[in-house]
Amino acid sequence: MSNVTAPMGGKIIDVKVKAGDAVNEGDEVIILEAMKMELPVVASESGTVKEVTCKSGDAVETDAVLVVLE
Predict the structure, then answer these.
(1) What would the DSSP string read from start to end of 37-58?
(2) CA distance 11 to 62
(3) What confidence tens digit (pLDDT) does each residue in 13-69 have?
(4) Which among 58, 31, 55, 50 has a CA at the least distance from the CA of 42?
(5) What class is the 2-69 domain?
(6) What does pTM read for this prediction?
(7) Whole-angstrom distance, CA of residue 4 vs CA of residue 68
(8) Is the C-alpha dihedral spanning 66, 56, 7, 38 positive or negative?
(9) Alpha carbon of 7 to those of 18, 20, 36: distances in Å?
(10) Is the dihedral of CA 16, 31, 44, 61 positive or negative?
């Protein structure tokens, strides 16, 4: 299992995956707004989404777990 974490604190703009989705390494899973920029957050490895721990509009801190992959 691996976790996709926030590279910096910010606000979740878009969640592009849901539990059960298959993702490949490098696929965008979350769009995060930080410092007035939209940052794509990508899967660090291929796998299946086990859990999405955030939703659009959530404020997150640096290193917060956003998506759990298995």
Answers:
(1) EEEEEE-SS-EEEEEE---TT-
(2) 11
(3) 999 999 999 999 999 999 999 989 999 999 999 999 999 999 999 999 999 999 999
(4) 31
(5) mainly beta
(6) 0.92
(7) 6
(8) positive
(9) 20, 24, 15
(10) negative
CA 6 to chain CA centroid, Å, is 7
The dihedral region occupied by 19, where left means phi > 0, alpha psi between -120 and 50, and beta the remainder, is beta
Q: Which residue type occupies 65?
A: V
Collapsing DSSP states into helix, strand and coil, what is residue 54? Answer: coil
DSSP 63: T
Q: Residue type for 8, please? A: M
List strands edge to edge, sheet with 2-5: 2-5, 65-69, 47-52, 22-23
- Distance in Å from the first CA to the final CA of the chain: 4
